[in-house]
Amino acid sequence: xxxxxxxxxxxxxxxxxxxxxxxxxxxxxxxxxxxxxxxxxxxxxxxxxxxxxxxxxxxxxxxxxxxxxxxxxxxxxxxxxxxxxxxxxxxxxxxxxxxxxxxxxxxxxxxxxxxxxxxxxxxxxxxxxxxxxxxxxxxxxxxxxxxxxxxxxxxxxxxxxxxxxxxxxxxxxxxxxxxxxxxxxxxxxxxxxxxxxxxxxxxxxxxxxxxxxxxxxxxxxxxxxxxxxxxxxxxxxxxxxxxxxxxxxxxxxxxxxxxxxxxxxxxxxxxxxxxxxxxxxxxxxxxxxxxxxxxxxxxxxxxxxxxxxxxxxxxxxxxxxxxxxxxxxxxxxxxxxxxxxxxxxxxxxxxxxxxxxxxxxxxxxxxxxxxxxxxxxxxxxxxxxxxxxxxxxxxxxxxxxxxxxxxxxxxxxxxxxxxxxxxxxxxxxxxxxxxxxxxxxxxxxxxxxxxxxxxxxxxxxxxxxxxxxxxxxxxxxxxxxxxxxxx
Amino acid sequence: xxxxxxxxxxxxxxxxxxxxxxxxxxxxxxxxxxxxxxxxxxxxxxxxxxxxxxxxxxxxxxxxxxxxxxxxxxxxxxxxxxxxxxxxxxxxxxxxxxxxxxxxxxxxxxxxxxxxxxxxxxxxxxxxxxxxxxxxxxxxxxxxxxxxxxxxxxxxxxxxxxxxxxxxxxxxxxxxxxxx
Lengths: 487, 180
Known about the structure:
The structure holds 2 protein chains of 2 kinds. By secondary structure, chain A is α/β, with parallel strands linked by helices. Chain A contains 19 helices and 11 strands.
């Protein structure tokens, strides 16, 4: 049971502004025997250094600015390598600079950015590299599922199915009953998310999957843990993503197009079992909204047995976004942001997160999809009413393809999201996604029906990085300098 | 616990198998054994083998917000997460027999490697009156649904000394309880 005191709710503060200056990544694959992780890391770094219009003469000059490195890598047992950070650091030729390994499950990428941003914000470093990776192809899929399931409590949970999808399915079942009223419409909303993210992945050369799917495909795919099916779940991947974070002075030395970055973090119990009822902490735009407050007061009581966050919400995501919004002056995410990259580990957790971060009130998450808000343009695929087709969404989500369509190379995921947001805010989506040579580089052919996923005039973006069934969550906000809200 | 030495050459074969030449890919088989302790949570697992469901309770009257009532934890915690004082063991078997019901449930059709629950596994989360948490377990018979009254079944004949020694089955409900 959580009772906050003032110290807990301190608004996080950067002692000086932090900028994202450059970003790069490898392509992502389920199995990647052609290259070692160290090679992929060097390739991601080369992209970061050489393809972001930096005002430096090559890699060695850029390396001259770097002061520290933060490395996100989650699962030592998957990679079968302890201290892989040291190996990558050596391959990047960054010795003898200080570096640190960071691991917070699925949120590892976000946490890595959190640490790198804080190194710059505090003044310790003027330039810090954040890089994350995962190698999940040394074991077969079912052993892989067991390995992931050891990120549940091994004495009380892992034995029960050895599969993380199951631990999310428990939430899906409860959410479906309580808020979805057991209706098939809720199943359909979950399916639409999988379809949307796979469709976005189709136009992303870095993606692991390139097949378009339909709502029917999702609903006919094999059940992993009822009600979650194969297409409701994220991918298992190999790949690397990196970002360079700098002080204002170094940022403008290196580029004419830096982007401001803020990162905040929250947490909650690893076991959903232990999530005792509490009052819902309010986001800035909910504080004066009597209707929402009345609705929240009813969440426990009317239904009799519903609790918050219980099995339907992620307190960690609410905390991380609450800290982040107050840190950078966001009042209403739906109005203040232009695009988001959410941690769609499963279709159900994507819906839950809409509510945690305030895109919809608790209980109304599916509306974010059904209203068309989550789309760049509502698709004409028969799953939306005619009057919505072609409508521009208010806040497009997961244009990268997300974890369901693009990748989930765990330690890289939270950074991949920010790489994509960075390119979006700098209007360079086409440069990295639509040129035929980007596809050829990864041994692929650019699809003829590639969709232009550049968000016109995108100025502010958000990324959620999420671990466990909500044990760690980070919220990263990017803003173009002219669009900064809080001075 | 008796001391045991393992024949690691047989448990953990190191002979490599070539899977591919270019890129060169090899198999690295292994079967390590982990020696794992339940530590201060031992009474819970001892209890399962004896047919008892043991939880822990915060007895610290100054603990906020638990207060006089004292929060009851299942899975058990050696220390209260709020005040970090040591908790006391309480037997909740009777409460489980008379008040337990399903909070949420799933059917695992495709479990990960090393799963020992019969497939399809009916994994459930269990509400028990007087317990502040909702532990995960599995239903050994019957069709799960939210709110279904259930009772615990303990593997006392051949315990595995894991959480799998506890499972649940549907419970017949007395008329008086139904009215409630």
